[in-house]
Amino acid sequence: MSGSVAKSQAREILEVTSPTNSSIRSWLHGLPGVDQVGCEARATGLATRSIKTSSKAWGIDLAISMIDLTTLEGADTPGKVRGLCAKGAAPDPSDPSTPPVAAICVYNDMVEVARAALHGTGIHVAAVATAFPSGRASMTVKLADTSDAVAAGADEVDMVIDRGAFLAGDYRKVFDQIAATKEVCARPGDRPDAHLKVILETGELVTYDNVRRASWLAMLAGADFIKTSTGKIAPAATMPVTLIMLQAVRDWRELTGSMVGVKPAGGIRTSKDALRYLVMVSEIAGDDWLDPQWFRFGASSLLGDLLLQRQKQRLGVYSGADYVTID
């Protein structure tokens, strides 16, 4: 949302324990429409910014520290997960000053393996849940999926919204599913709750207006992060879509005083791409989001190029691709 935010209407939604579908729909469809041409032009303009020398080095290290290093394949083994954890903790063994990644993201059954491998590193363990990537399952199954991840010790849960329900206008159903999943992320006692990252799968939402609506709906329901994509659907993350989501979290903080994170996922492969996103974060949301706590990259292949660029800055020459590990 940009410009005039319907604050009184938003507060009504936030203060109602059980908002109706019609009230949510009325508010979401009252959001200002996205100017497609303007949004894409703004994203293109930000992508032309040039970052050099020490600023580039700082940006590369920051981008590395923001990566959710991921393996989500049916052929995943404990050995593969342990290897990925080792890479996340020491991305470039030849240079101990290389920062670790933010998180290792796996399926539920590999959470305990990842936790054991990452013990003492400070790297988070994220688990995908709620019938990832399709989201096509009963709510009972989705909540059980989430409960398994939390019980196994996941620090973060990446859930997918029911895109079918959203596109059919059943916003209350999507709201309820996010809110119920958020409740399952709570842990008893002094153990911190698992953070909930809500995947919108923007490639299936059709319009920029829907991306804006889905972003606000997720935040209204309790998302700690809003995430573009599963990485399984094309198009995945794009700069215009991420720009809209950054506007949403910026305006959410203005409205509520609370920050929500953003995670573009899929299709971000080069250091140049990552630096463009960091420029956009600073320009649209603000420098407070330039932190792994509030911005992540779901782009495992990105790490290799960031490491090569980092080696270039340190050594003065480009290394071959075989100088970094391939996952």
Automatic annotation (TrEMBL):
InterPro entries: Aldolase_TIM (IPR013785), DeoC (IPR011343), DeoC/FbaB/LacD_aldolase (IPR002915). GO terms for cellular component: cytoplasm. One of its GO terms (molecular function) is deoxyribose-phosphate aldolase activity. Signal peptide: none annotated. GO terms for biological process: carbohydrate catabolic process; deoxyribonucleotide catabolic process. It catalyses: 2-deoxy-D-ribose 5-phosphate = D-glyceraldehyde 3-phosphate + acetaldehyde. The keyword Cell membrane does not apply. Pathway: Carbohydrate degradation; 2-deoxy-D-ribose 1-phosphate degradation; D-glyceraldehyde 3-phosphate and acetaldehyde from 2-deoxy-alpha-D-ribose 1-phosphate: step 2/2. SUPFAM superfamilies: Aldolase. Keywords: Lyase, Schiff base. Its EC number is 4.1.2.4. NCBIfam families: deoC. Belongs to the DeoC/FbaB aldolase family. DeoC type 2 subfamily. This is Deoxyribose-phosphate aldolase.
